[in-house]
Design brief:
Two copies of one chain form a homodimer. Chain A has 13 helices and eleven strands. By secondary structure, chain A is α/β, with parallel strands linked by helices.
Chain lengths: ~325, ~325
Amino acid sequence: MIGLGLIGGSLLRAAAGKRTVWGATLSEADAGAARADGFDCGTDLDAALRRAAERDALIVLAVPLTALDETLHHVAEQAPECLLTDVTSVKGPVLRAVRRWAPDTRFVGGHPMAGKAESGWSAGTAGLFDGAAWVVGVEPGTDLGDWAEVAALALEAGAHVVPAGAAAHDEAVARVSHLPHLLAAVLSAVAAEGGPLAAALAAGSYADGTRVAGSRPALVRAMTEGNREALLPVLDDALGRLGAARGSLASTGGLAVTINAGHEGKQTFAQAREAQRTGVRIDLTAPDAVEALAALGERGGRITALTDELRTATGEVS
Amino acid sequence: MIGLGLIGGSLLRAAAGKRTVWGATLSEADAGAARADGFDCGTDLDAALRRAAERDALIVLAVPLTALDETLHHVAEQAPECLLTDVTSVKGPVLRAVRRWAPDTRFVGGHPMAGKAESGWSAGTAGLFDGAAWVVGVEPGTDLGDWAEVAALALEAGAHVVPAGAAAHDEAVARVSHLPHLLAAVLSAVAAEGGPLAAALAAGSYADGTRVAGSRPALVRAMTEGNREALLPVLDDALGRLGAARGSLASTGGLAVTINAGHEGKQTFAQAREAQRTGVRIDLTAPDAVEALAALGERGGRITALTDELRTATGEVS
């Protein structure tokens, strides 16, 4: 485990006992706290990576996106052919960085959809991923033996696995995670212009709509700026819809199109989550298995178990 | 009480026992349910209004904004000189409608900042207004004897009173209530475009940001469309900020200005709510009392009691 913050620290705890784990971080505070909790952790990245290379271990990069290139240089030097995954919130930029800086690693990207406001080793818990979605990347040419090893770690941690290509992942999180953060920031700033009277009258819709504007700005910047390419067209979609609402309110005075579309969207997602699910079974050794996994993810499906020595994935889809 | 839905029904329950109350509504279902609960209610608006005129009662209009003009015609015919208040979510349009259709009533506008998703008599509770802000309108020339009688009803119901002019109220709620509903609708619609994969990956920021998009579209339309004049410049402010974020992301790749402004706005409101408060006392018979009340509201202050036979208002401000 390279990086022992909230995500890396939680995953190290969740995997300990099920497999041999060790970690390294440049943060002396996190390394010290992890050691004090009984984990085999230090601040020497290269030593941890050499040990991974010797044992052909799965390396998890749990560092911020801004530290990724530098960390990949260490990986390329110390463990150039290891199986490698990550836990960052964008997948396309990470895939490109790995192909550039550590091209011989067997890389399968990952993104656990879990988090909380606090950060650092001390904020982590072994249960952080219970019931969460964990995207495990499928690209044309992905080795599904490698894929299954990464998916197995996510399942061990208590998550279910959503297979998705980097582009599909990045577009989806732009819509359901990064745009919400930007709209919350805009709403919070516009509300604040209303001064103390607006503050006195702010109630539920303000509180809900601005909750994530309380997140640490550095974290929000890292994830939104890091997903620039996928976020721009999604921002344009939001601007177009908000501009259309403005135009309609100014001309006819009506907001039905905007408000009805929002209400329908909410119902669509609620139905998707509540829909009856049926079991699926994918033979990971079949020639079209990569396409089958990606299609499962696009349909909202999930993998919940790996059997047959990681050669078969089973799950559900509605 | 004219109208026995969520707000009217709750206020009738809250005021019963403290004063003589009766109500009327065009909804036979609500009138029947109120009678079954032991309240003096019916479907004959004119009879209820004549009784108000005979006893010089305070009339509360708790009808939707779309039914206001029609209801005011009844008031002007049956109880043209009564003290009148309302509970609708915009104050400027109501003030103009009253001046046009029932100009001889002694009107003081009101807006309790309380609600829930359900509607109708059966959704109401006597405790709905406990701890809520209740705007009671102050305009140049407002008779503060009338104002105090309306404020006393809000205090009786468990709310605290925020004095504000119609324009200041409408701008504030555009920022902290109506814009949140429109941004939630836009977010919900943009997210839904992401299909089942986006639904599978939607977590906390999506759920918080779209919660009010689940509200009944007719209610959301009534309040946002009803506040058109104040909402348009607030929408422009939001569009400008979101467009600036888009431009910055496309050019420099940075979102610091947007995200930092949102974080600071959140802190500003939190500080306003947590600030140390000091007592205030306003002599409602003083010549500048209307201005003093409006200024108190603009500073985020509130009235919490009326003493001295409604001639003195006391409260707090930070």
